[in-house]
Amino acid sequence: MTACEDIPDTVEITEQRELCQFDKGEVYRLNFNFLQATQPLEWRRLSRMKFRDLNYSAGKTVEISVLAEATGTVLENFNRWVKDQFGQQQLPSLATSPRVEMMGGSGYVLEVTGTFQGKPGYALIGAIVEREDGRLLTVKMTGERSEVLAEKERFLKFITTLRTAKLEEAE
After folding, report:
1. Which residues of 52-88 are buried (b: 16+ CB within 10 A; e: fewer)?
2. How far is Cα 56 from Cα 140, in angstroms, rounded to an integer?
3. What is the distance between the alpha carbons of residues 117 and 134, in angstroms, rounded to a whole number?
4. How far is Cα 84 from Cα 130, in angstroms, rounded to an integer?
């Protein structure tokens, strides 16, 4: 249907889907703040789940997740991704990790390619920043290597838009 066509009086519903938090009008609150970001138009927002305070998908295989209150250090989290999820050698330090400005601080970026949880030809691009309260905010994108690389620029721009806003600002 195009904008110039008449809108029909009746519409036949042929599919159903489960309601998600966005249908219910719920809002995610982080310590009485909102976690906000500018979502790329090419990404689909998904329901919040465990370890995914913001949750998106792109293409056929790409998953993007934001966890607002991760524990441990930046290096420990990177090494969990590298070793546990890709089966590769741990990083000795963050010395070679690129930096990125995000959430009002200086975060680290990690890129890994290989076999992800048994799936060959995958890639991960992740970013972690230490928040003002000492906790970590992690952002991770995984999927088939070609799709992750196609989304890289959008991911790097997305992480710079993440912020928390007081309730009054977000309403």
Report:
1. bbbbbebbebbbbbbbbebeeebbebbbebbeebbee
2. 10
3. 30
4. 22
Residue pair 91/82 in contact by the 8 Å Cβ criterion: yes
Hey, what amino acid is at 27? V
pLDDT of the chain, 171 residues: tens digit per residue? 455 667 677 878 787 766 554 444 444 444 444 688 889 999 999 888 888 888 999 999 999 999 988 889 999 999 999 999 999 999 999 999 999 999 989 999 999 999 999 999 999 999 999 988 888 999 999 999 999 999 999 999 999 999 887 655 544
SS3 134: coil
* Residues contacting 32, CB < 8 A, separation 6+: 167
